[in-house]
Amino acid sequence: MAKLRNMGTLDRVLRAIVGVVLAIVATTGTYSGGITAVLWILAVLMLGTAAVAVCPAYLPFKVNTGAPRQG
């Protein structure tokens, strides 16, 4: 099975930064209740997609922010 990577380095770095910021905001207690849960979910999604270099939302649209595949 071919590797399914559809995210480039810049995309991954930006998602990681956004994920860390969301986690920090969720931890500080600035928001409470459902908003904190949403912040945590978004932080995990951002960090997870950055870690594996695959964005499921890109798949139906065949978006690839990485370098063109060779071969």
Molecular structure report:
The protein is mainly α. The chain has one domain. It is about 55% helix and about 0% strand. The chain has 2 helices and no strands. α1 runs antiparallel to α2. The two termini are about 15 Å apart. The model has no long low-confidence stretch (mean pLDDT about 90).
Which short descriptors sum up this protein?
mainly alpha; 71 residues; 0% strand
Summarize the structure.
The protein has helices spanning 9-28, 34-52.
Strand content: under 5%
- The gyration radius over C-alpha positions equals 14 Å
Q: Percent range for helical residues? A: 40-55%
Number of domains: 1
Measure the end-to-end span. 14 Å
Return the structural class: mainly alpha
Sheet bearing the most strands, described? none
The overall pLDDT, averaged over residues, is 91
Compressed to H and E, one letter per element, the order equals HH
Low-confidence stretches: none
Globally, the shape reads elongated
Instruction: Count up the helices.
Output: 2
What is the β-strand count?
0
